[in-house]
Amino acid sequence: MANLSFSYSKMSTYKECPQKYKFRYILKIPEKPKYYFAFGTALHKVMEFMYANLKPPFPPLEETLKFFRLDWQKTSFAEKGYASAQKELEGYEEGVKIIEAYYKKHEKDIFNPLSTEFRTTQEVDGLSIISIVDRIDYLGEGKVSILDYKTGKTVKREPDQLLMYQKLMSQSPQLLKLVQTKDPSVEKVDVANLLFYYLPKLDEQIYTPAPKEEIDIFWQGVLKVADNIKAEKFSATPSELACKFCDYKDLCPVWKNKKAEDFAQVNAEEKSLSPLEALAKKIDELGTLQTDLTKLKQEVIKEMQTLKLQRHFGKEYNVVLDEQEHLSFADEQAVIDLLRKEKLLNKTLVPTIETIEDLFKNEQVTLEQKKALGALAKKIKTCDLKILKDI
Ligand code: SF4
């Protein structure tokens, strides 16, 4: 049986909605052109053009702008997915500004690209995986830096994409051959860092490679997706965001019996609530969210502990386990009596767990007093989650 043809975009489409994967990759129903894809593709081509020589300097700015203009003119605004010729012109002007700014910032850089638009097809674990890396720089001693250009409004960390690059590039025979042209003694490629370069802001985000355990867990997930595809599991997983922008909505079984009027009716019902009823509804929603949040947090903590991870990343957020040790006193009266006897009550102001914990750090409290307090205490571990938004 032939290996399943696979890629990062195929995987992310399947994860978004298996039914969408079926429409796009099995039934090969084309989607409507999207202007942001056309804009991104045009800028990627410009970058490839600029770095074509793999050594400084860039071609003159005028030449690059001409390349961009001629390529841009090959398709109409509708083919690119713009709503009007005016919008297309705005896109073009934005592209020119980005290219000019890129020149200004990087024209004099000393850079060492090993490859641009590095295309490979690797056979791994029954999958035939196609990948295109925007740029690979050589850092010496077998180390490479993988760079991906981003052209959207905001840059999101895409952990799956980073992990996929790291896994594939570190074991790519083609990349190893390329590295050996620089340094024949290298036996293994080391992906030393991964970069998202956000072109509209000329901003780069550097990520350090993930540990082997994280790559292994990620890879199990990839193989699971591939198994589901091979087993033709294409059930729809509708969600507000995915369905809103899905081109296959008219064909989708989930939406077959739902009409715009159904949603209009729900909206109308919500609008007819009195202010007090609307507030009561929000309070209930808030309570439900809080319960769900606590439950979800506990699940994430448990899974991170099982996988022995201190930190993990979503697309827009990352979380860090916040483990702390606290004291717990079963017999509160015994503690008060001890503090009174040892004349320590005045040092706590109000005896709370925190003020008593402070006594253990207080140099005026003797070792014996600390021991006596410690004998009444039990250490308990708590674990919370810090949720941080990627910048
Ligand atoms: S409309 Fe929603 S459920 Fe249907 S294919 Fe698209 S994303 Fe999936």
Q: What is the count of β-strands?
A: 9
Class by SSE composition = alpha+beta
Which oligomeric form is depicted? single chain
Following the backbone from N to C, one meets helices and strands in this order, namely EHHHHHHEEEHHEEHHHHEEHHHHE
- Largest sheet descriptor: 6 strands, mixed
> Which residues form runs of ≥5 with pLDDT under 50?
none
Rg from C-alpha positions? 29 Å
Globally, the shape reads extended
User: Strand portion, in percent?
Assistant: 15-25%
Bound molecules: iron/sulfur cluster
Please characterize this protein's 3D structure.
This protein has 391 residues and is α+β, with helices and mostly antiparallel strands. Among the domains are: 78 residues, no CATH class; 41 residues; 72 residues, no CATH class. 49% of the residues lie in helices and 20% in strands. Strands 1, 2, 3, 4, 5 and 6 form a six-stranded mixed β-sheet that branches. A three-stranded antiparallel β-sheet has the order 7-8-9. Helix 3 packs antiparallel against helix 4, helix 3 runs parallel beside helix 6 and helix 7 crosses helix 9. The chain starts with a strand and ends with a strand. The model has no long low-confidence stretch (mean pLDDT 87). The structure holds iron/sulfur cluster. Iron/sulfur cluster binds next to helix 2 and helix 10.
Quick overview of this protein structure:
Helix content is 49%, strand content 20%. It has 16 helices and nine strands.
Topology overview:
Blueprint: E1 4-6, H1 8-16, H2 18-26, H3 35-50, H4 61-72, H5 77-80, H6 85-106, E2 113-124, E3 127-140, E4 143-150, H7 159-170, H8 173-182, E5 190-198, E6 203-207, H9 212-230, H10 240-244, H11 260-271, H12 275-306, E7 311-313, E8 317-329, H13 332-341, H14 345-348, H15 353-359, H16 367-376, E9 377-389
Parallel strand pairs: 1-3, 4-5
Antiparallel strand pairs: 2-3, 3-4, 5-6, 7-8, 8-9
Iron/sulfur cluster (SF4) binds next to helix 2 and helix 10.
